[in-house]
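Feature request disguised as a bug: please show the residue count (456) next to Tryptophanase in the output. Example input:
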Amino acid sequence: MKTIIEPFKIKSVEPIRFTTKEERKEILKNAGYNPFLIHADDVLIDLLTDSGTSAMSSEQWSGIMKGDESYAGAKSFYRFESAVKKITGDKFIIPTHQGRAAEKILFSVIGGKGKYFAANTFFDTTRANIEFTGAEAFDLLNEIGKHPEIRAPFKGDMDVDALESFIKKYGRENIPLVVLTVTNNSGGGQPVSMKNIREVSAICKKNNIPLFLDACRFAENAYFIKLREEGYQNKSVLEICQEMFSYADGSTMSAKKDALVNIGGWLSLNDEELAMKCRNLLIVTEGFVTYGGLAGRDLEAIAQGLEEVVDEHYLQYRIRSIEYLGEKLISNGIPIIEPPGGHAIYIDAKRFAPHIPVDQFPGQSVTCAIYEEGGIRACEIGSVMFGKYDKNGKLIPAMMELVRLAIPRRVYTQSHIDYVAEVIIEVFKNRDKLKGFEIVYEAPMLRHFTAKFREI
Ligand code: F0G
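Example output, currently without the count:
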């Protein structure tokens, strides 16, 4: 059969609320043209993020009932620990309430002024947690990953020559860690090849620098390896995941993505001394070592989610549904990062609205137009999120101006996705009318969450 169906049936539904275009104009204005500030109830289809928005399975919900809420040594912790160990192979598994909590703990211990970190691309919270300690973070993405229009199988790969030069320049003793973000969220949800993980790991080992995976979407990455990299077609996704983690010394994880839950995360590692330091900080900031800011029931749901996410029927459906949306947009001439990534479609706003200069935030303009047209909430990943200012207050733009349509896991059906495509095609037809924006309020860090805008 050609049709790849949703590999589940629906037992419980949640109504979504319809609004009119007139209402949405008003809602946008009141939210300062920032979709993060719109009430979720005013959103018809929410593609703001794939984080914490998964639909849990009946097995996960029954795990919620079984959760052991003992303060110390809960049964649910040991189930969680063994599920994480099965995938990562790491010795020390530290639960956290989400990904950035793991980052905060790790980088507080190993960061600081005079330290330098490199990744294929750091996600914004990871970069923020590094910079918050006074250290510096560098993105060393492969050249091909910087070109939205070029189709290549592994656009999330790190530039290994750049990594060698980076180590020479800053000195191995000043580099506490290298990170590979799998898949590379900020670069379009593009996968990292096993070859690249192996090469980066070898360079790190040679220089005695630990390699960590930012593992949020490890299963999607593994499935791309199975589909695209020679030698992996006959391996199971679980085996591929285990090989990916085997080259790393640890991982930070937001379970809100590929553990198919609404909250949770972990820090996994092999270095005992570092693990003890991180655990001590965990106790101060998150909670005791066997719950780390989560309830026992959350740990149960994560353990179950980790079993479900490596199911190949699930991953085939997951990767295909993103590709399906991508194909519809491409066939209507809409510029997106090609090929489609694992969890989202990224519209290239520079080509979508070329008449809007980057300092007027074309991505923000397209994002607002998509909401106004069809009640769909997307997310700007461009100069609003990553832009900085030079000494004279002039914008240093982001590498790309993107609009992300992140698809929650197991939440929307094919007809929802057809509707999303229809709305975006309509906005594209009228793209000449899109206007630029200026910022009227911004916070000093992670400004995209709370900034307010005015139409120019
Ligand atoms: N690393 C990556 C690659 C991420 O995508 C995220 C979150 C985090 C770390 C932080 O995890 O949210 O649990 O603290 N990404 C979400 C997103 C927010 O929308 O892409 P967290």
